[in-house]
Hints:
The protein has helices at 8-23, 27-40, 48-66, 83-99, 103-114, 122-138, 142-156, 163-179, 183-195, 201-218, 221-232, 239-255, 259-276, 279-292, 297-309, 313-329, 333-360. The protein has 4 domains: 7-66, Tetratricopeptide repeat domain (Serine Threonine Protein Phosphatase 5, Tetratricopeptide repeat, Alpha Horseshoe), CATH 1.25.40.10; 98-196, Tetratricopeptide repeat domain (Serine Threonine Protein Phosphatase 5, Tetratricopeptide repeat); 197-277, Serine Threonine Protein Phosphatase 5, Tetratricopeptide repeat (Alpha Horseshoe), CATH 1.25.40; 291-362. It contains 17 helices and no strands. It is mostly helical. Helices cover 77% and strands 0% of the residues.
Amino acid sequence: MNNKEYSPLFVSEQITKWLEYLRQLDYDNAEKCRNEIQILLPFMNPDDRVITYFNLVDHKHYLSVASKVTNIDQLNQPSSSDNALQFLYLDYLGQAAFHKKDYVKAIGYYSSAEQTLSTNCELEKAEFYKRVGTSYYRIDQNVFALSYIKQAVEIFKKHPDYKEIELNCYILIGGIYDDFSEPRLADKIYQQALQSSSPFPLTKALILRALGSSNLKSGNDHAAVKYFNESLGIKNSDPMISSKTKIDLAQALYNLSNNTDALKILSEGYEELLVDRNTEYLCRANTLNALFNDYDLTVINEQLNKLLTEKLYFEASELAYEVAKFHKNKGEYATVIEYIEKANTFKNKSNLLLVKEEVEAL
């Protein structure tokens, strides 16, 4: 039995070591360090700050290693004078909001966290900038998104061990150029990233999927099918990424009037998505079916309403634009106008949420 008492300083140093492993993406050592600290805690002289420090890093651990959000109610807000703990606390709240797809709230927390961000750990800054940039990207605030993600890239480029995260940043940058209607720049970014992606199967699958999405958006459906199939052909990819890619592949196949293969791949992707209940792509799948198989605008409007109910305004806007594009190809311009107006309304809702968040923060 361990009768030794440990000082809060010693335990705090071990937690800092644990945090460094997480920052370095060394999850095996992070797990070992966490287990060792759990043994020390019962024998530590009582110290509320160290317990708070442990809980915050533990939440970061679960977000990094297990990719799940733990109970926010377990957290006590640290003292406002303790910047290090304030940053971990607000950054965690931002990540929790992001996982719930509440991107505007995530940005609010990140904005507060940035004011307490230490300059001591360059890599922590880079990871934080990537998170902030991704949140802005998800609500179509691409100028802010690009600014933060480029700052992250400049840091990651100096650290070869972070090459995979750097490549993921390029996927985001390519997506932003696509949104800026610059497919050539997007393709250049994706192709350069693809050349360095072989050691990272999941990231390679994501880059190929991004190339497929870029070509789908540009109307190059044959190229889109090629890239989507290459993405699906990579082993050890994420099942959720695979399911989403199947829905996108189905859309490209429908555009090429290959309805038989499209329906087959759409059905496969839909069944897989039911396991994780991904609202965005389930709605996309139902919309594709309602456009190309059982034409029904009522079903399509139901899918848009489901996205709005979950405040997925950006996703609803993108889907409405797709519906408008479908009718444009059929020459049904009254319906085109109807869904473009819907898309613009949904996008404005997303922007309004961001404005409200900033006003409330004043």
